[in-house]
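Researcher: Sequence recovery benchmark, item below. Answer with residues only.
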């Protein structure tokens, strides 16, 4: 339950944000989109 409490707090408060440089974000976006599309 602790993980769910932490998740709820992060969503409620907007805490735990991670900053990523734009070139790295673009490199990571494609495989993340493939993973998300695979689960639909």
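Model:
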């Amino acid at each position: 339950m602790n993980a769910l409490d932490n998740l709820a707090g992060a969503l409620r408060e907007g805490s735990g944000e991670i900053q990523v440089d734009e070139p790295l974000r673009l490199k990571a976006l494609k495989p993340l989109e493939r993973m998300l599309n695979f689960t639909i």
